[in-house]
Amino acid sequence: MPSQKLVTHAVILAGGRGTRFWPRSRTRTPKQLLNIVGEQTMLEQTVARLRPLIPAEHIWTVTNAEQATVVRKQVPAAARKGVLIEPKGLNTAVAIGLAAIHARHVARGDALLAVLPADHYIAQPQKYREILTAALEVAREPGRMVVLGIPPTRPETGFGYVERIGEPISAKGFPVFSVKRFTEKPALPVASEYLASGKYHWNAGMFFWRVSTFLENLKSFVPKTHAALKDLAGFIGMHSYERRLQAMYQELESISVDYAVLEPATRTDGPPRVFVIPAEIGWSDIGSWAAVYELLAKKNGENVLAGEGHTLDAEGNFLWAPSKFVAAIGVRDLVVVETPDALLICTRDRAQDVAKMVKQLEEQKRKELL
After folding, report:
1. Are residues 237 and 339 in the same domain?
2. Last residue of some domain: 218, 238, 273?
3. Strands 145-150, 200-210: parallel, antiparallel or unpaired by DSSP?
4. What pLDDT, in 10s, does the model give residues 14-62?
5. Is residue 62 part of a domain?
6. Radius of gyration of the chain from Cα atoms?
């Protein structure tokens, strides 16, 4: 491994809308800025997990103008200068690229990057940090990119998968496999095959690489995006930066980092470039209110209440109305979420459809509810 001292920076992607968590999740306060599980917000939990490894001044949080004010309040004071505001969402490749050029500017050279979502739950933070340390060690080698893979526990059709190949190497005591390919969200029979094979992992959207490695791959596979970021980097700290940023975002395509960099990198000739570390860390992307119930329920059929209440002949319900006494009688498997201006009622197995309701509100231009 190279002996060059590289400072590690974290990139937290915090620009999502979290529409499945309506009515609590709104345009200015989406899922990652709410205390969905626990006292802290999802963003605060993400930062807290990192702090033993990465100082606050090396944390970059990519968000949008509507959420920036709340984001700045939730990150540590030393991380507020690292809040980067995108003019509009162009998916993860551009967001990561924006943070990468800022990290390089501050580091005055190369740096290691840990790229992480702001809205995931991790039950084992200490083991998570140990695996992050291993991933960064692998990523220290120029040209290597690392993804954390969650060992699947069910044939899930809502996640992308990472297929590993060959025998592992070891980093900090953890196995590290070469990645054969990334696959899209599969149909149920295919997901069942993936689970049975033992060679597939859920793609958790957590990535590790050098700034130079990422930008070189971006140059190879998405040259227009790379060229625009290279140009913008020359204006960091200047009065004209905002104008250049606005102009750049009007020209670039929206593309995920998986499509832009990782998938094509697995198809190139030569030594392996993309690696996966299996990470059994109690992970959940908390994709819906039903997922929150599953995390909080201590046993099957338990009722989960956010505030005071009582149930009679009721089971499997998630009842979030902390300002009211809730009485639930004879109901099963419901999600009930109250805010001052809205009330959500749905069955747990339809919790994913909350996003469809939000889309209908958008079409009806009900801005007061968005």
Report:
1. no
2. 273
3. antiparallel
4. 988 889 999 999 999 999 999 999 899 999 999 999 999 999 999 999 9
5. yes
6. 21
